[in-house]
Write a structure and sequence with these properties.
single chain, 256 residues, elongated, disordered C terminus
């Protein structure tokens, strides 16, 4: 086991045995460097691993905290939470992080496919309570909400429902939704997308979704619910995407 994995395992054990309780603030990176006699990079990698497992979250300007009771229960039930951390699990998380962060546009453009989008909604709304919890913001803080389908060579592949904090993603325009929102985050705002906490399930297409995806109502779709994190652990996106199973492959998904 590598050093950062051992540190992550130690912190996770403290969460499991109650030494660190829900909503407790973790020691700072500098303090943990002193405790474990390691570099800041090692502590950062340990935090990344715990963030991806849904156990901790960073709040910009405040610090890093153990998630609340409901979020910890969700992590345990999501398939991403396992007792202990080993090297094979780390490899899976790293694979997920590097591929998914590229986004739909980059992934398929690299394959020579024509990408297009149909935007059904782009609005600024108060965050519903459950969305605010996922994004570590206050209920009724403003968020962008958008709904769009992504198409390859004119054929709809997936419908996306996305929320992003208004304060964190300033200046987002509807026109960007026809291109790559992740490119806007990286290239314009200078953010580094780090990781995703995901739950995958099978669902049936609603009548509205069936019309937009050009399938029969009730057709099976593969739903991907996810929270995206920046490299400092800040959640930047809560989204639900519903994919037409026989038109796409979610090759970058690795659930431990």
């Amino acid at each position: 086991m590598l050093k950062y994995q051992a540190i992550a395992s130690d912190i996770q054990q403290s969460i499991e045995d109650g030494s660190l309780k829900p909503n407790d603030k973790l020691p700072t990176v500098v303090e943990l460097c002193d405790i474990y006699n390691v570099s800041k990079i090692t502590i950062k990698r340990a935090f990344d691993l715990l963030i991806e497992k849904g156990l901790i979250a960073s709040k910009r300007g405040s610090g890093t905290y153990v998630k609340n009771t409901g979020e910890l229960a969700e992590a345990r039930g999501s398939g991403l939470y396992i007792s202990g951390i080993d090297e094979s699990a780390s490899d899976s998380f790293t694979f997920t992080r590097s591929d998914r962060a590229r986004g739909f546009t980059t992934e398929h453009r690299d394959l020579g496919q024509e990408i297009s989008s149909v935007v059904y909604d782009f609005s600024i709304v108060p965050a519903p309570e459950d969305i605010a919890r996922h994004l570590n913001i206050q209920p009724d803080d403003f968020v962008y909400h958008h709904c769009r389908t992504r198409c390859l060579d004119g054929l709809p592949i997936v419908i996306e429902y996305t929320y992003m904090p208004l304060d964190l993603v300033p200046g987002l325009k509807k026109s960007q939704l026809y291109q790559s929102v992740y490119a806007y985050l990286r290239d314009v705002l200078g953010y580094k997308i780090s990781s995703f906490h995901r739950i995958i399930r099978a669902v049936a297409a609603t009548e509205e979704e069936a019309e937009r995806l050009e399938v029969a109502a009730g057709s099976p779709l593969l739903e991907l619910e996810q929270v995206g994190f920046l490299d400092d652990g800040t959640p930047f996106e809560y989204s639900v995407s519903r994919n037409v199973g026989d038109r796409s492959e979610l090759r970058d998904i690795s659930v431990v």
